[in-house]
Amino acid sequence: MGYAFSICLILSFGLIFSAVQSNSISEEMSEAFGVPGIVTGVVIATLAGIVIFGGIRSIANVADKIVPAMAGIYLLVAIYVLAIHITEVPAMLALIVKSAFGFEQAAGGFTGGIMAALMNGVKRGLFSNEAGMGSAPNIAAAAVPDPHHPSSQGLVQGLGVFIDTLMICTATALMILLSGAVDYGPDGAQGMVLTQNALSEHIGAAGPAFIAIAILFFAFTSIIGNYSYSESAMEFLGLGGRVPLLILKAMAMGMVVWGAVPPVAAVFNLADASMAVMATINLVAILMLSKTVTTLTKDYFGQKAAGKVPLFRIDEHDGLSKGIDATIWNRDVAQERS
Asked: pLDDT of 203-259, one tens digit each?
């Protein structure tokens, strides 16, 4: 299952998702500054290549500085917009819930309305936070958890879902609904262009430029982060040599250029198909590992309740030793604490 998943991960994150992110950047740059898609693709591929050829540590250093700063600025803008429309926010939240579970939508469900809404919600939710798809654990496994316990890193990943989906995505949805810029017709703006139109209603001409710059940083760090996922998978498959990785890097850069040109729907369709395969494999793995997760979680919170700093001691869990490198899990606790 690990080998099958790694192959899907390389195809999805190393190649297809890079095209999706490139498409988002291209769309924004074209709308805000009139930059042709192919020009955006070449520039982004060049910049990403500089970071990617620097190695995973270089990727981490870039993302570590850009993502928190950009997310903070984006949330500040969102808070400003929500604050000046605070009296309308409860009605917009109610509209979201009503539109998902209302009687009209339920009636439409007999003709596929509910299933269509559910399918699109799951697809976009997966693309937003990757929860359940199995990709995030790859980058989590490359980190050193603090405190040094698997569950502490799991909690960090859970926090990421909260910040990304429940805060940033909800704020974006509210800004769009509060703007009145939504056009439900067949030719209405979608995706990032819709967000640009919405923010231009709130903060004027600076709105489209701000969204373009924000998406540039968010999507760019996603491209280099996605590549780091695929490089780890290549290592797992025994293809971590110079030539295989060089081929992967060249293909990833090519997908960035290609993704900046096609319509967004074509790129998203490829991404949806690859996510479905990954999620199917990962959900089976979750069921197989559920007992292990329960054991680790009880161990973590048991140590917390006892007033201790949670440390995962592999020697205390005989049933978990298979496939785990004991040298990285507190083999010498005294030395680790010192």
From this structure: 887 888 888 888 888 888 888 888 888 988 999 999 989 899 999 999 999 989 988
Cβ atoms 252, 52 nearer than 8 A:
yes
| Rounded distance between C-alpha atoms, residue 55 and residue 332, angstroms | 30
Give the C-alpha separation, 260 to 44, whole Å.
9
Alpha-carbon span 259 to 24, nearest angstrom = 9
Non-local (6+) Cβ contacts of 187 within 8 A are: none
Asked whether the predicted pLDDT for residue 107 surpasses 90, the reply is no
- CA–CA dist 10, 228 (Å, integer): 10
11: phi then psi, degrees, rounded to nearest 5:
-65, -45
Determine the pLDDT at residue 333: 47
| pLDDT over 90 at 286, yes or no | no
CA angle 167–171–176, rounded 5-degree value: 155
What type of residue is 218? F
Distances (CA, A) of 82 to 36, 224, 292, 309: 33, 32, 42, 40
Q: 19-63, pLDDT tens digit by residue?
A: 888 888 888 788 778 888 889 899 989 888 888 887 666 666 776
